């Protein structure tokens, strides 16, 4: 089943497109190409949220750099295209500032535990991607938001990590252990001698300084700053809505296709609208009828006769390409056999990197041609 990209991009009821998949499969370039095509071919007011893109992608959009604030891409026709790159630390700071006073925010910003959590904690990038998506949607400046998901260890982390981090930040046990008790002492300080060994062990594992920083961080949170789980749940519901379309991006390699199949299954379980699969960097041959066996046989014949070594070399290169094309087709067939209901579009492998708007337009054309 073929995926009609232009029908998807031209559908005004689709307000969010999420490109997901394992790392290194071309999600960022795919997201940018989709947003550009939506603006130029369908007149959409689009913004693309990229995650840690290569510098050449910013340059291909005609921008010297991408930041946490949307910037308009010039030299486009039709609608409008804005682009931005997620800065998870700055986004976390924005969340703090929007839910507490400036004085309390500065106290939180100075806390070593917050500094570590907002920059390096597992799940923070995924959570902040969802926060930024919620901010862009609430701004109501664009009729299409295209999201490039973080380069996680697993594609499933985009769905799981925000909930894990939110549970940690809103965790009852964390607040119970660290919240001030009557008289200004924490629960740790009023525990009996029978539990002192336990608390001492925890302090050794975490470090007394870290434990103090966590306690100070939690005590800095006022009632208006909580609700991490609530906001994560709200954005999760947006992702389940019909205004959202997920595109799973994969290359025709076993690990990437296996990850895509897992993600497709998970999206179905979570009742999230899966629009289709983008099979990226697919190799093709202009002479498919010239098989591996025939190519190698002809090359060997020329070599034995000591004739045309250049032709022999070309035949061997063709044999390798045909073998790769066949291998990729078998790998892709595993996905389509397991998920025949999911539309697929294929993007041919390119000779070079995307380096300008013209190259992004070519990727968009390939996505639409399928």
UniProtKB/TrEMBL annotation:
<dbReference type="InterPro" id="IPR027417">
    <property type="entry name" value="P-loop_NTPase"/>
</dbReference>
<feature type="domain" description="ArsA/GET3 Anion-transporting ATPase-like">
    <location>
        <begin position="15"/>
        <end position="283"/>
    </location>
</feature>
<dbReference type="InterPro" id="IPR016300">
    <property type="entry name" value="ATPase_ArsA/GET3"/>
</dbReference>
<dbReference type="GO" id="GO:0005524">
    <property type="term" value="F:ATP binding"/>
</dbReference>
<protein>
    <submittedName>
        <fullName>Anion transporter</fullName>
    </submittedName>
</protein>
<dbReference type="Pfam" id="PF02374">
    <property type="entry name" value="ArsA_ATPase"/>
</dbReference>
<dbReference type="GO" id="GO:0016887">
    <property type="term" value="F:ATP hydrolysis activity"/>
</dbReference>
<dbReference type="InterPro" id="IPR025723">
    <property type="entry name" value="ArsA/GET3_ATPase-like"/>
</dbReference>
